[in-house]
Each structure stands twice: as structure tokens, then as C-alpha cells.
Amino acid sequence: MKHKAIIFDLDGTLLDTLPDIYKSVNIALGSIGYPLVDYDIVKGGINRGSRHLIKSVVPQSVQSDEAAIDNTLQAYTQAYAEHYNDSTKPYAGIYDVLCRLKEHGFRLAVISNKPHRFVCELIKAHFGSIFDVVIGQGEFPAKPDPQAPIAAAERMGVLPQDTFIVGDSDVDMATAGAAGMTSIGVCWGYRSEGELISAGADYIAKSAQELYSIVTGAF
């Protein structure tokens, strides 16, 4: 099998977005009068989309109250729109590796459970036009549903079996499995190596350079 394309997760894989998500979550909670939460609570809620994140941080007494979730999600979205790129930055070495992969002939995509507008703005700000396809939440069901990665592969003109999915969570590993793609778990994000292995990662990358070595076959 000769892989031809790579689909990247965004949060915890390409960009460290957690500081701005953490700030925005607590702005939203405070504006409604809910208790603020610590860093690890927010970190644990990332990867399954904004609504899941908000359900994980509001008081337990309102976690099943959809109106309360809607209200908090709206407050979070407003706060994140103001702060989404205050402290967010690419992980060490990732931009250089993306450029080298592009030169190597790989097609590159991003698929995130973050709302599409924020994904596009962050990719433009930090990576320019290096990606061939960018898909955020909205057009397709959220990961781990395979529809988005399958559509991305089609748009890049490659087959699912010739495509890597790179991510930092069990959600990304499950997405790869559902889409018939090869998974690479990265250890610099928001989940541990053990979680990635348990989730069925085909490969584990502990650095951007190791990721490059895996996808180019230069072990």
C-alpha cells in the first residue's frame, strides 16, 4: 500500500488550542453564574465538539437540561469568537513537517469537530494555504463518523486505504477505523500514549519528526 494523503485533527494535533478554549469556557460559565472549572476538566472535554465540551463543564445539575446547555454553548461560542487565537500556537516542528510532507507529494487535509469557521480562521492564521481540504463541524456529522474523512479523501482524489488519519485522541483512532484509513496517534496532545494504544492506533508518533518518518516510511 502506498499512502498518498494525510488527514490531520486540529486541536491537540496541529495546534495547542487549550489555553484559549479554557479561557473561553470559564468566561462563559462565569457569565451565567456557574462555578469555574480547572484546566484538566476542560482538557478532558475536548475532542468531541463544542456541545460535548459544554456538557462536560457545566454543573451536574444542568447537564441534562438542553436549554441550559444551549445557553451556555452560545455564551462559550461568543467568548471563543473573541479569544480563539489569543494564545493558540502550532506544536513544535509541525509546520516544517507539513511543508516537507507537501514537498514529498502528500495531499493534506484537516478535519475537526470544532465549528468550521474557527477551523478555517486558525488554519489560515497559522498554516496559510498548505492544506488541500479543510472541514470543520457543520457539513458532516462529527467524528468518529467516517463521512467527513471519506469526503476529504474523495476531494483529494485518493482512496481511503491510501490515507492516514493523524490525531491525539481515541476519537481520531475510531474515525480512522470507521473510514478504513491508517491511524497515527500523536503523544504531544491532550490524551496519553496508553489511551491511543488502547484505542487501536496503528502507529504512535512522539514528535513531529517521528510523524514524518512514519508517513514517509523512513524508519
Descriptive key words:
single chain, 219 residues, Rossmann fold, DNA polymerase, domain 1, six-stranded parallel sheet, 10 helices, 8 strands
Description:
The chain is α/β, with parallel strands linked by helices and 219 residues long. The chain has two domains: 5-16 and 88-216, Rossmann fold (3-Layer(aba) Sandwich); 18-83, DNA polymerase, domain 1, CATH 1.10.150. It is built from ten helices and eight strands. The chain has helices at 18-32, 39-45, 50-57, 66-83, 94-103, 116-127, 147-156, 170-179, 193-198, 208-216; strands at 5-8, 15-16, 89-90, 107-115, 133-137, 163-167, 182-186, 203-205. The strands form two sheets. The protein has a six-stranded parallel beta sheet, sandwiched between helices. It has a two-stranded antiparallel sheet with strand order 2-3. The two termini are 16 Å apart. The mean pLDDT is 96.
